[in-house]
Amino acid sequence: MTLARPPVNALSLEMCEAISSSIKECEANDKIQAVILKSACPMTFCSGLDLLEMAPTPDPDRLDKFWASLQQGFLDLYGSRLATIAAIEGHAPAGGCMVAMACDYRLMGSNPKISIGLNEAKFGIVAPFWMADLMVRTVGHREAEKSLALGTLYSPEDSARIGLVDEVVDGDVLARAHEIAAKYVSVPAASRFSSKMLVRSKYIKELEDRRSSDLQTFTRFVLSPPVQQHLSSYLSILRTKQK
C-alpha cells in the first residue's frame, strides 16, 4: 500500500479516508494476509496532519469530519486483521509517526537525514490522548513524556534504540519489509490476529468509547485563538522556507 499524496503525504480528510478504504479493501480479500505501507514521496514517509485542515480559519463542519476520519484511519490500521509493516524511508513526524506506530512492525532506512517522532508541541498543538498513549506503549513512559513535551524527532539510530522502530535497514528497506511480512504470514492468521487483539483491543475500545469527547476536545483546542495564531505562524514559516 503506497502513500501517494505529493509532495509530503500530508493527512488531509481525503487522505485519511483513502487509508481506511484501502485497508478495508485489502481485508475483504481473503488471499491478502499482510500489507507493507510505503511512500511514493522522496524523503517523506508521511508528514503528519495537513495543517491547512486546521488553519487559517478552518470550516468547523469539515474540521469535525477531518478529525473523525483520522480517528477512523487509526482504528482501521491499528486493529486490522492484516499484518502491517511500515517501510519508512523518509521523514515521519507527528501524524506520520502515528501511522508508523499503528503498524505491527516498523523498518526505517539508515539515512541520518530522516527522522521520526511526535513533534506536535513544536507548532503549538498537542497529540490526542490515544496518540500519546500509543507513544507511551511504544517507547516507555519516561521517554514518551520527554518526547511529547519537547516535540522530539529521532534519527533512525535513536529510534531503534528507544524502540520507536524495530530495526534500521542499511540497504533495501522494501526487500526487508517483504521478509518480515513473510515471517508474520507464516503464523496461522487466526492466532496471529487474536494475539494482536489481546494487546490492542483495550485501547481500540477506549478510543471508540471516547470518540465524541475526543473530537470535541480537538475542535475546541484547534479553534482557540492562541492555537490558531501558532498554527498560522508555523504555516507562514513553512511557506517562507518553500520559496
- What string, H for helix and E for strand, traces the elements in order? EHEHEEHEEHHHEHHH
Largest sheet: 5 strands, parallel
Distance between the termini: 32 Å
Shape: globular
Helical segment tally? 9
Question: Please, what is the average pLDDT?
Answer: 95
Low-confidence stretches: none
Query: Helix fraction?
Result: 55-70%
Number of extended strands:
7
Q: Helices, strands, pairings?
A:
Elements: E1 2-3, H1 13-27, E2 34-39, H2 60-78, E3 83-88, E4 92-93, H3 95-101, E5 105-109, E6 116-117, H4 129-139, H5 141-150, H6 156-162, E7 167-169, H7 173-185, H8 189-222, H9 225-242
Parallel strand pairs: 1-2, 2-3, 3-5, 4-6, 5-7
Helix pairs in contact: 1-2, 2-8, 4-5
Question: Quick recap of the structure?
Answer:
The protein has 9 helices and 7 strands, in the order E-H-E-H-E-E-H-E-E-H-H-H-E-H-H-H.
Give a structural overview.
This protein is α/β, with parallel strands linked by helices and 243 residues long. The protein has helices at residues 13-27, 60-78, 95-101, 129-139, 141-150, 156-162, 173-185, 189-222, 225-242; strands at residues 2-3, 34-39, 83-88, 92-93, 105-109, 116-117, 167-169. The strands form two sheets. Strands 1-2-3-5-7 form a five-stranded parallel β-sheet, sandwiched between helices. Strand 1, helix 1 (13-27) and strand 2 (34-39) form a beta-alpha-beta unit. The model has no long low-confidence stretch (mean pLDDT 95).
